[in-house]
Structures are given as C-alpha cells and as structure tokens.
Amino acid sequence: MNRRQLIASVAALTTISLAAPTWAQDEPLKVGFIYVGPISDGGWTYQHDQGRLAVEAEFGDRVETTYLESVPEGVDAERALTQLALAGNDVIYATSFGYMDAVINVAAKFPDVKFEHNTGYKRADNVGTYDGRFYEGRAVTGTIAGRMTKTNKIGYIATFPIPEVIQGINSAYIHAKKVNPDVEMKVVWAYTWFDPAKEADAANALMAEGVDVILQHTNSTAPLAQLQQQGKIGFGQAADMASFAPSPRVSSVYNNWGAHYVKSVGRILDGTWKPEAVWGGIGDGIVAIGEITEAVPAEVKAEAEALRDKIGAGEYHPFTGPLNKADGSAWLAEGQTATDEELSGMNFFVEGITAEIPQ
Amino acid sequence: MIDPVALFLLLLSASTPILFAALGELVVERAGVLNLGVEGMMIVGALSGFAAAYHTGNPFLGFAAAAGAGALVALPFAILTQFLMSNQVASGLALTLFGLGLAALFGKPVEGVKAPAMISGPLGLNWIVWLGLLMVPAIWWFLNRSRAGLILRGVGENHDAAHALGYNVRRVRIAAIAFGGAMAGVGGAFISIATVLQWTEGMTAGAGWIALAIVVFSNWTAPGVLAGAWLFGGVTVLQLRLQAAGVRVPVQLLSMAPYLATIIVLVAISARQKLSRRAGGTAPGSLGQDFHALR
Predict the structure, then answer these.
(1) I need a surface site. Which of A262, B32, B65, B240 has the fewest CB within 10 A?
(2) Does position A20 have pLDDT exceeding 60, yes or no?
(3) Among B257, B282, B279, B280, which residue's Cα sits nearest to residue B269?
(4) CA–CA distance, B166 with A95 (Å, rounded to integer)
C-alpha cells in the first residue's frame, strides 16, 4: 500500500465513523465493561464477564458488548473509560472500587453516556452504583461452618479492614455461634485480595491453631488446596470453585452480577434507567450460594438452605438483635435490624469475636 | 501457644519458591549477569509445570517440565545480552513482562482444572522442599569447591581476565542463565503444583522480585540465600501465625520486618567492606556489564 492509498483509506474510515451516529436508532445498545483483572481469573473478573455473557444471552442482537480486561486502577482507568466512551458505548460498567474517581471524571465529560460503578459510593446524574450484600451469603456459610467444626474453631482469611469484610466476618460468626454456642473465630488479615502463596500460608497458620473450617475472603483456591491436604473444609469465594467439590469445598458464596446487568440493561432499553445505588443480595440473585455438597449432612444442608431462602425472601435479616459490639456496648435491641447506613460504615466486631480490627 | 517445630515446618514450605528462584539467580549473578526476569521465568515454570503435571498425572514430571520451560524462556534473554549486547536491566525486565504475558496466553486451556495431589516426603513435607534444601550445600560446594565453579566465579569477577585465560565467557554465562531459568521454573511450579493446585494468571504475585532482593541480602553466598529465604518466609508465616493465635502485635510492624532486616544487613555489609576490603562474598566485579571479546 503506498502512501496515497493509505491516506485515502484513513479518510474513508474517518468518514464512516463520523457518519455512524446518524444510524444510531437502528443500532444495538452498546455496552462496555472494564475489568481490573483478566477474565480468566476464576474469581472476581470472571464473574463479571459471566454477567456480560448473560446480557448477551438475554438481549441477543439488541445489544453489543465489549470489554477491556486487566485495566489497572488509577490513570489507566481514566484512559480506558474515555476510550470506551469515545467508541460509542451507551453504558459503561466499571467493575472495581479503585475506578471510582476515574468514573466520576469521565462521566462528567460524557453526559450522554450512562455509567455504573461497582462497589463504589460516588454517584452523579449519569453515574449509578451497584454492589452485593455478601454478608447474606456469609450467614449461610457461617451456619454450615458452625455445624461442621469438630474443634469448635473456625477461621476467616480476611483481606483488608473495610466494612464489606467486617460485615462478612460478623455475619459468619453470628450464624456459626447461633448453631454452635461453643464456636470460636480466628481471624487472619492477609492484606491482599489475591496472592496464592500468602493465602496458603494463612490457611496453614489457621489450621496450626486448631481450626478445621475456613471461610475465605481472598480470591484464590490456595486455601482450599491446603485444606484438602489436611482433610479439612472450606468454601468457594467470589466464584464457585467447583473443582474442589465435594470436599474441601462444601459450598460457596459467589457473585452473580448477571442478575444485575440484565436488569440494568433492560431498564436502559426501555428508558427507565435512573442513577441508583443498588445493593442486592440473595433475593435479587446477585449473591448466590453454590451447591452444598454431600460432604455436609442432609439436616445441616436443609438448615442452611432454609436460612438462604428466608434471607432471600426478606423474612430474615442477618443482623438482627439482640447484638452487642465486641467492646460489650449494646448495638441492636431484640428484633431490631441493622440499617444499610450502619452496615456500610461497619468498623467493629460483634461480641464474642476476640480478634482485633487493625487500625 | 505456638509450637516452634510446627512453625518451622510451615516456614520450610513457605520459603521454597523463593529459595529455588534465589539460588538460581545467585549462580547467574556470580557469573556476572544480572537477570531481572526471575518473575517471568517463575510464572512460565508455574504454568508449564502445572500443565505437565495435569496432563501426565505425575507432579514430578511437572517439575521437570517447569525446569525445562524456565531454561528455555531464559534463552532469548541469553541471546539478547550475550550476543547482541543488549542492556541486561532492560532485557531482564522485558523477560518478566514477556513471561507474564506468555503464561497468561498459553494458560487458557488449563484454567479451572486441578493438579494431581503430591505425595508428602519425610515430616509431611513435599519432596521438592527437601530438594530445595539439598540445593543449598550443592550450590555452595559447586561455587566454592569445584573447578567449574571457580571458572564461573572468575567469569563473573573479571570477564576480561577469564577470557584472556582462554575460558569461553559467553558459554559459561549462557549455561548459568539457563540454570537460573530452570531453578526459577521449579520455584514457580512449586506454587502452582504444591501450594495452589491450580493455574491462575499472575499467581507468582511478585515472588521473583523477593528472590532478587534475597540474592543481594545474601551477599552472593548460598547459605546467605537460605538465611534470606527463611527470614522472608519466616516472618510472613510468623506474622500470620501470631494473628491466628490472637497475639496482639501490629500487623503493619511485622509486614515491615523483612524489609527492615534487609536494609540493616546491607548497611552492615557495606560498613564492613569499608573497614576491610575482601575479595570474596561481595558483588561480583563484572555484574551487569556487557562482555565483548576484542581479541
């Protein structure tokens, strides 16, 4: 190709792309996603991409989805979001907490594009947020953990001392304690979301302390691999981790973002979308409980499933009084439930947990 | 209370990946080459080892494959730096980025599957842990007591002198780079085959960089590498163990400890060098320099 042809073809392409908006009426809704990890991570990003595929399956030709994977949080995120907006996407889902400011900045420059930010709290006229009530799932796995432990010691591999994680630890402990009053909770802060070697070390440290059931908030399968070697049990996290079923993975709490994406895209298509703060749980289908395997006795399985269904139906709130804080002060009175505001700022353990939250 | 024996056994497992990678890099650096591609070679080893273990059902074949793949992926680096005189720092960084990308690409088919379980050796520890421990005296002996090791050190200390004596500097260095790659590969495979039992992108999570730091920390000696690997691994295990036991020690302080120790050791080493300038044990004289035979 000589230079003249090159210039001609570039000019032709430019004309096509400039002409594109006039066909907008007949075109499918363009939906963009940015992911913090690779879609193959088997955890967080994988579940978001499953959500994207669910949108495609639901709406077929009416939507066209694209994604950018492994976009680091920070300056790159702003560039990637701008790129997606310039590419003509009508709605962009930003799937990591650290994209928050980038989303707000880019959204201000593209008022006609809709944005939804996952796990964040900043909203604007064209920016909504969505998140999962993961603590609802922890109530179910906590129940199983409380029933299954023989040493009465359950472990929790925590990531960072933020409200989401603290909710999870509290919820798991409350429900384990409910079915097993002698249960003790050991907490290890790994200070990472994903570091297989460190997660394995954390699992081993907990088992050395006599723990025989581990709940993890970190995203790799390393703790399950260690549990398997010692014949102890745990749960899948973020993704189902079914390859470790039926044991050590006896169940899982996984994120089913498709439930939200399908609803959200549907609202955009019929023009009823509003910038909201969506915080969905088991009832909305966003938080899902993986299959409880035969390693769990039938009556425990039935009990856990009943709890799951009660939470899903809105008949039971995992944070229902009477509950005290770890320092002994009163928190919730008999029958009182925690407000969303209290939960989203949660910075204390409930009574009975002897571990401390790093400050 | 915390059982020190149990803690020590945890430490042995936890420090194995960085021990392998750092021992390999030690030999490379003693030959006068700075290879910053350890992380890349580790992740390639993690993937190929895992894939081989999965397909053959034999974890030990997995480790053999990891060693081969690690050595193979180090070869472009050897060609670039030894024949084309590329900058070693830039080529090493490129090797890390290349390895991470390559492993991510070829790792797609084995995502989500599980490796065959390993049979434990003595004391419930993996055989590879024992192999790693055995490598320490072996490499010490090779470097300090064998003729080949003497030549390798000579090449690293002063490549012009070694060349003048008739030794093939390039051949020695390429062999060292391949060995370093094989060791890093085994270290990476330990994470995928023995620790996690699954392949995930980016699973080495920076272990290669810690291995590089340990080589400096070790003052370029094999026992020093062991001490460094145990310090890093030990502090990690200990702080998690203390947390699990509910001992109130600030997590942040413990996370800092290995890095603080490195700084203190480095300061101590340089202070000692000022007092008495010894030939042995310090950074190899030709480390990171290009060798070009003029005659």
Answers:
(1) A262
(2) no
(3) B282
(4) 60
pLDDT at A18 over 70: no
Asked whether residue B295 is domain-assigned, the answer is no
Domain containing B240 equals 4-275
What residue has token string 């990472």? A192
Q: Is the peptide bond before B17 cis (omega within 30 degrees of 0)?
A: no
Treating both helix axes as pointing N-terminal to C-terminal, what angle do A222-229 and A196-208 enclose, rounded to 10 degrees?
Answer: 40
A289 by Cβ neighbours in 10 Å (0-12 / 13-18 / 19+) ranks as buried
A235 near A251, Cβ under 8 Å?
yes
What per-residue confidence (pLDDT) applies to B15?
92
pLDDT in tens, B26-37: 999 999 999 999
Edge-first strand order for the sheet with A287-290 is A184-189, A153-158, A213-216, A233-238, A249-255, A287-290
How many CA atoms lie within 13 Å of B147's alpha carbon, on the beta-carbon side? 1
The domain that holds B39 is classified in CATH as 1.10.3470
Given a cut of 80, whether residue A230 has pLDDT beyond it is yes
Domain edges within chain A = 25-132, 134-254+290-344
Kindly determine whether residue A204 and residue B195, on different chains, have CB atoms separated by under 8 Å: no
Give the whole-angstrom CA distance, residue A301 versus residue A297: 6
Q: Measured between beta carbons, which residues in chain B are less than 8 angstroms from residue A355? A: 243, 246
Judge contact between B238 and B261, C-beta under 8 A.
no
- The two structure tokens encoding residue B280: 């042995």
CB proximity A255 to B under 8 Å: no
Closest-CA residue of A relative to B13 is A201
CATH 3.40.50.2300 fits A134-254+290-344, yes or no: yes
The pLDDT tens digits of the residues spanning A217-226 come to 988 888 998 8
Give mean pLDDT, residues A337-342. Answer: 92
Backbone angles phi, psi at B288, to 5 degrees: 80, 0
Please report which confidence band the pLDDT of residue B110 belongs to, taking 50, 70 and 90 as the band edges: confident
Q: Is residue B9 part of a domain?
A: yes
CATH architecture of the region A25-132: 3-Layer(aba) Sandwich (3.40)
Interior angle at CA A172, CA A94 and CA A233, nearest 5 = 95
A120: left (phi over 0), alpha (psi -120 to 50) or beta: beta
Closest CA to A206 of B193, B242, B236: B242
Residues of chain B contacting A, Cβ within 8 Å: 2-3, 6-7, 10, 13-14, 17, 104, 107-108, 111-114, 117, 191, 195-198, 200-207, 236-237, 240-241, 243-246, 248, 250-252, 255
Model confidence at B219, in pLDDT bands (50, 70, 90)?
A: confident
